[in-house]
Amino acid sequence: ELKVEQNPLFLSMQEGKNYTIYCNYSTTSDRLYWYRQDPGKSLESLFVLLSNGAVKQEGRLMASLDTKARLSTLHITAAVHDLSATYFCAVDNDMRFGAGTRLTVKP
Amino acid sequence: NAGVTQTPKFQVLKTGQSMTLQCAQDMNHEYMSWYRQDPGMGLRLIHYSVGAGITDQGEVPNGYNVSRSTTEDFPLRLLSAAPSQTSVYFCASRDTGFRVAFFGQGTRLTVV
């Protein structure tokens, strides 16, 4: 059965700093998704990674996929307060989710 | 452009009552799915459908039924509500390329 693990589960950052969120999964898959969720809101799609070595960037966020290591990363560059949210990775065609990383960016 | 529409947004049920959560999409997507979100556990897949007339179970299907008579609609039925089904429920749809998923706004269900 596919297991998806995210770490850290909680992340408090200073504005302007860099950090990485990790998403490990247990079985072979070449399809990985990243979502953002604001408190009390629905999920917003950030990235879809469809092959080994895929890298996508949008603003201060960059996601990558290493299917051999069964690992995806979401890198945050020069964090700003607006990035405060919960970030989820999801794996495979039917999207099995990790537990989420609650990110707080402090001034 | 409505996207994925869920109704109701909030619902309180008594233990043992039944109800149907509605989900409709207007993007002609074949793939639709239901998730529940509980604190600290991410989203867990309840049921999914790859097209009209085809449904399958996800990770946590017990206590829930689904059907898919049209491409647009994918209702989720709770047969006999239990307090353990208190959760936020999300419906999602995707095209056959399994690229971007679109989520509804969620239904917050409380079973007392």
Protein described:
The complex is a heterodimer of chains A (107) and B (112). Chain A is mostly beta strands and 107 residues long. Chain A has no helices and 11 strands. In chain A, strands 2, 4, 5, 9, 10 and 11 form a 6-stranded mixed sheet that branches. Chain A is globular and about 40 Å long. Chain B is built from no helices and 11 strands. In chain B, the strands form 2 sheets. In chain B, strands 2, 4, 5, 6, 9, 10 and 11 form a 7-stranded mixed sheet that branches. In chain B, strand 5 and strand 6 form a beta hairpin. Chains A and B meet through strand 5 and strand 10 of A and strand 5 and strand 10 of B.
Radius of gyration of chain B: 13 Å
Task: Give the integer mean of the pLDDT values of chain B.
Answer: 94
Residue windows where pLDDT falls under 50 for at least 5 positions of chain A: none
Overall residue-averaged pLDDT value of chain A:
94
Tally the helices of chain B: 0
Radius of gyration of chain A: 13 Å
Intertermini distance of chain A: 41 Å
Query: Tell me, what's the shape of chain A?
Result: globular
Coarse structural class of chain B: mainly beta
Shape of chain B: globular
Quick synopsis:
The complex is a heterodimer of chains A (107) and B (112). Chain A is mostly beta strands and 107 residues long.
What attributes characterize this protein structure?
heterodimer; A: 107 residues; mainly beta; 6-stranded mixed sheet; 5-stranded antiparallel sheet; 0% helix; 56% strand; globular; B: 112 residues; 4-stranded antiparallel sheet; 11 strands; 50% strand
Task: Give a topology summary.
The complex is a heterodimer of chains A (107) and B (112).
Chain A: E1 4-7, E2 10-14, E3 19-25, E4 32-37, E5 43-49, E6 55-58, E7 61-66, E8 71-76, E9 85-91, E10 96-97, E11 101-106
Parallel strand pairs in A: 2-11
Antiparallel strand pairs in A: 1-3, 3-8, 4-5, 4-9, 6-7, 7-8, 9-10, 9-11
Chain B: E1 4-7, E2 10-13, E3 19-25, E4 31-37, E5 43-51, E6 54-57, E7 64-66, E8 76-78, E9 87-94, E10 102-103, E11 107-111
Parallel strand pairs in B: 2-11
Antiparallel strand pairs in B: 1-3, 3-8, 4-5, 4-9, 5-6, 7-8, 9-10, 9-11
